[in-house]
Amino acid sequence: MQPALNPAAGHRLDWHAVDRAPPPVRRYLHMALQDCSAPIATARFTQRGRLRASLTSARWMPFDAQQMVRPLDNAFTWIADVRAFGPLRLHVVDRLQGGHGSGEARVWGMRVAASTPCHEMDSGALHRFLAEAVWYPTVLIPSAQLTWTGLGETRATATLTTATAAVDLEFRFDGADQVASIHAPARWGRFGGRFEQHGWEGHFGRYEWIDGVRVPRRGDVGWTIGPAWQCVWDGEVVTADYEWGGA
Questions:
Q1: Whole-number pLDDT of residue 117
Q2: Which fold has domain 15-244?
């Protein structure tokens, strides 16, 4: 753990807002942020793992990725080197910037797939940003944009509202007050070349203290179409680095 920071006035965490959150959220935030006193301004990660292009694909492709997140702006950029097969590499970039989601894939510098901003992309990217807030949990403090609805002692739903989209995501907490999983009954995604809404769920584990924040090292995410959940991404955070402050 690192010593508590001493940010300038106006850049401090709002612990009064934390204490207004539903009980499992309040316990989680006090636990995860106990050595922090400023909001996370920038988070940078390196990741490795495996993914597959669709639910119908049996091919799992290893990847290495870098991600930069600006939590105060609801923004991220994820850049991955995906080893498709043999010497073939996919260069994949997913973004949420200015409220708009986008993505593209290139092979040897040539674009082979792209998704331009639209409501479905904006909503799907915002869902991802909210789910991944377990790695920059100051985003989960109640605010004008982020509200919580309690669902008992181990569950609560977060609602994140921006100028372009609003999403709901259920957080499920374990006995150690950590986020064990997230669930959305309907998230936008591309299936067979078109946008559809389906159930979406992710799981987290191997929590550790990194730079004064308690975050998971491992995670997975997948879709539920029909009776079964199917994983499409499984990875780990190799390194994490945070910059602190706020406007």
A1: 78
A2: outer membrane lipoprotein receptor (LolB), chain A (2.50.20)
